[in-house]
Amino acid sequence: MEKPDETDAYVAGEFERFVQQIVGPVGPNVPRIRRFGAEVITSAIDRRSADMGSGVPFEGRSPDLSPLVPRDYVVAPGDEILVTLWGSVVADLRLLVDRSGRISVPRVGSIQVAGVRNADLPAVVEHRIAQVFKNFQLSVSMGQLRGIRVLVTGFAVKPGTHSVSALSTVVSALMQAGGPSSAGSFRQVELRRGSTLVGRFDLYDLLLRGDRSADHLVQAGDVVHVGPVGPQVALIGSVNHPAVFEVKPGEKVADLVAMAGGFSAVADRSRLSLERLDDRSSLRIRQLGLPVDGDMALANGDVLRAFSAIDANQPVQRQNKRVVIEGEVMRPGEYVLPPESSTADAIQAAGGLTSAAFIFGTEFTRESVRKNQLANYERALRDLETEFTRATATRRTSNTEEAAAQAASSAATARLLASLRAVRPTGRVVLQLPPEGRELPDLALEDGDRIHVPPRATTVGVFGSVFNGGSYLFTGGRDIDQYLRLAGGPTTGADERSMFVIRANGSVVSARQSTGWFNNNGLAGLAAEPGDTIFVPEEMDKTTWMQHAKDWTQLLAQFALGVAAIQVLGN
Question: The whole model's pTM is what?
Answer without folding.
Answer: 0.64
